Amino acid sequence: MVDRIVVLGAGTGGTLIANRLRRRYADAAVTITVVDQDDRHVYQPGLLFVPFGLADPGEIVKPRHEQLHHGIEFRLSGVDSVQTESAEVRLSDGSVLGYDVLIVATGAQLLPGETEGMTGPGWMDNVFTFYSLEGATALHPALERMSGGRLVINVVDLPIKCPVAPLEFAFLADWYFHERGIRDQIDITYVTPLDAAFTKPVASERLGGLLTEKRIELVTEFNTGEVDGPGGRLISYDDRVVPFDLLVTVPLHGGADFVGRSPGLGDDLNFIPTDAHTLQSHASPNVFVLGDAANVPISKAGSVTHFEGETLERNVTRFLAGEPLDASYDGHANCFIETGFHKAMLIDFNYDTEPLPGRFPGRAGPMPLLQESRINHLGKLMFQSLYWHALLPGRDIPGITAAMSDAGKRQPSGKEAP
Hints:
The protein is an alpha/beta fold. Helix content is 23%, strand content 25%. The protein folds into three domains: 3-108 and 255-320, 3-Layer(bba) Sandwich (FAD/NAD(P)-binding domain), CATH 3.50.50; 112-252, 3-Layer(bba) Sandwich (FAD/NAD(P)-binding domain); 337-418, no CATH class. It has seven helices and 24 strands. Helix 3 (165-179) links the parallel strand 12 and strand 13. It starts with a strand and ends in a 27-residue tail after the last helix.
């Protein structure tokens, strides 16, 4: 009997899990089919650097099919719906794929049209997002033209991909305008629906302090209702107004459209209710979810997808063997946070432990946690090579485990774990 594994999405999660499973089932009677609507794999962390001329758009894009191991079938098609009762995926080209295990890894999509006025007059003129390749590329000349005025960075609502990226943009903008010698002519404002700079209190205090140090105004609890591009106004639902000359926005996010057409699969935002520890969907036992498509209570970030992949690989294997699932995923996430001037911070946390100071990946680790350093900046830059050559191929990264380690972290008591 041949077991059929179907993976929806050939982004970070879909690619790495397909490759991990292909290696595990190299000699077994298992077929692995990956489906995506396009053949363009974008290294999304690189989008942050494109507007500042620090990355070439052509260097962060590769064909999706070339990232998949030999023996994996790649289907170029959109998805119409998932029928969990019959265990079938209906594709946009009219074909149907049956499955024994389905892995949904279709990520999150931008929904700028959901905010009044955002995609109206001003879109790609004085209103941009760097969360897409097209937006990041168009933003570069807009920043080059800016010689004074008000730059506003705005997060419409959560959840979003890489929640620290908008803060990184603000920090890099401060550096960028300093490099051009015009920082005193630019007012930078960071506008968020949160009541602080970030979701985690310890990290939020540190990041909020950096905003203050860099003279970046923080506007909190701002629920964006309208973007007035021609008038240069960001308007909240309670009629607060933040004026801008250039708006860099992070639009509302949602799951893939097909989720809404799939009975019982998703929630109101088309994200998929998922067990936070096994990554099994609530919709059906043979459906698993990886990465941004899941509604688990942790950041939608590439590191999360990588760590989830280790647990998911085990659970697909156990499910096909009729064994109990592994509930070991602990919400581990870590993120480099660019802070400008060739420095970055690093945070490491999970469901139960917020970012703490210390060293990474252990007590003798070279990277300081919750502190700016040049080595953290270099680590972020080197991650691009690691992404293409280790993470996507589904390899384990030495010294970094799926389960978060307390080693090297200073606990609230002030003691550092060994």
